[in-house]
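Progress report, Aim 2. The chain analyzed during this reporting quarter is listed below.
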Amino acid sequence: MSKKKLIRFKANKQFERLFEPSALDLIAQDHELKGKWCEDFFKNNNELVLELGCGRGEYTVGLARLDPGKNYIGVDIKGSRLFFGARKIEEERLDNACLVRSQIELVPAIFDREVSEIWLTFPDPRPDRIRRRLTAPNFLNRYRKILRNDGNICLKTDDYDLYEFTLDLAHKNKLEVLDHTSDLYASRLKDRLPPIQTMYEEKFIAAGKKICFLKFRLDRDVAPLKPKAPAVRA
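Predicted structure tokens for the chain:
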């Protein structure tokens, strides 16, 4: 492990708005703030919005800056990346934001039917491991456990296949699609979304890639993917 990472990991322990529960603890027992993040931590009754796979927390921090009337939490397993977001939250004294270091699979142990919206910003498209996509049914059904009944999912990606895969899942499961476009910056939608671009998004745009956006209501469980038919040998 590099010296820089070790320094960041040490600094992370000093940030008051960065939580680092261990996976073993979450498997054994739910987080103490589960179901009470707004009431006990943020000390308000505002809506709670998550960014899953938040990396450096750029989107979480950006949303918190733009909308102090909501609470924002970014979740990621990479502590060396979360360091940057935690430092920014502390420097700017963003009282409506915090970060949690955890695997996405464990979010049902951290939150409980208290989240109004989940953002997935440029997740790994995993073309060879579709069931590991953050919009695959097994993940969406985890999100159902932490979303309010009227909760939404927002996906922003440069990967058209991931966008189409997720849009198709929404249609097949009769989920209400609220907004979608395969070319965000050529559509009217761009004026309705937060004017935030992460480092990755800026790179994708500079490379000439189109940005896709999808928003849908996740108000029911999603059917599992059908097993892939085995190849027929000649």
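The first strand starts at residue 18 and ends at 19. The first helix runs from residue 3 to 12. These observations will guide the mutagenesis work planned for the next reporting period.
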